[in-house]
Queue: 2 jobs
Job 1
Amino acid sequence: GDSVTQMEGPVTLSEEAFLTINCTYTATGYPSLFWYVQYPGEGLQLLLKATKADDKGSNKGFEATYRKETTSFHLEKGSVQVSDSAVYFCALTGGGATNKLIFGTGTLLAVQP
Amino acid sequence: EAQVTQNPRYLITVTGKKLTVTCSQNMNHEYMSWYRQDPGLGLRQIYYSMNVEVTDKGDVPEGYKVSRKEKRNFPLILESPSPNQTSLYFCASSLTTSGNTIYFGEGSWLTVV
């Protein structure tokens, strides 16, 4: 079945460092890909998405490109801030009847001042 | 403001005592679903509903019930909670199942002792 694999955390960075969180997927068909963020004590928020190959999703300085050839959707940010500390989830959905999101296990990012 | 609202946000209960977690959305979304989040497992879908009176099982439905009598509400029912249902629960909704953005509630922390 469909699955998402993302790098295990925690990822600890200093402020202004470059961030990459790796995400690869296995899916039949042409899934839509998402990054969700969960700040401490809060629910899930959609960070960005891409619905077809070579699409780049971006938001709040974060970017991810849908790479069909490598089945990847890595999250990047050029300069992280303390306020970016959160758990980041990569997810996919193939739509269809269930519209079910398949999530990775989440990566905790801790940014130190 | 568009939102998905869950209640209660935090609950400690005892084994076997029936409880209901309510979920309401104000976006006139057709599709609603429930997920549980567990460490190392990410989020997994419990049940989903494509419209009023239409519900179906997700990946981990055992021990749960749902109902969809009105479009805006999708309560999660634990008839006889057990400690392995201790988890963080999220309600989600989207306009339809066709790749629309999925919105999440803030989560409900449930502890069964």
Job 2
Amino acid sequence: SQQGEEDPQALSIQEGENATMNCSYKTSINNLQWYRQNSGRGLVHLILIRSNEREKHSGRLRVTLDTSKKSSSLLITASRAADTASYFCATATNSGNTPLVFGKGTRLSVIA
Amino acid sequence: KAGVTQTPRYLIKTRGQQVTLSCSPISGHRSVSWYQQTPGQGLQFLFEYFSETQRNKGNFPGRFSGRQFSNSRSEMNVSTLELGDSALYLCASSYGRGPLITGELFFGEGSRLTVL
């Protein structure tokens, strides 16, 4: 079952605009990760934020985590056509050997 | 460093047949996880292997099985294929014991299975 739920399901923006995707989850987590998937390809890890962190940056990516609301957001600044992809959040819980659980993703289209 | 390699990339089978998919993890990675991705269900966890031992299994029927070899390469098998098994099967590797310890997973490009 999905732990994370991304919102919106699909997002279409113009090149140069910022894109914001949200993720909500249900149980306590150890860390939350964001991945990108180009159509029909494998997933690529973008960024990991631990439960004791509130914000993290990597290049044009900014991730925030609010454990009190059980939510995270991914901001991509100055979007490019090459950012067109599906973005997934994934959560790792503190319970033993539980696997990384993925949401259903946000499909981002950046129009040149 | 070579990435995660999955073979075959594409395959077509008919109902009732069986299929074996292969995954070679990044050199030095000892954990291999398998996921099934479909448009309706998204990414569903199948199983995880570490040092040849299955450490975790998702909620899939017994027709889905896997194994890991001493060189960390992994195979998964689906027997008595059903139409609903059509999916992209993704393999991911990590150095340690799962996302709790080491964080990120490194994914292969997937094996796209079509069942007719």
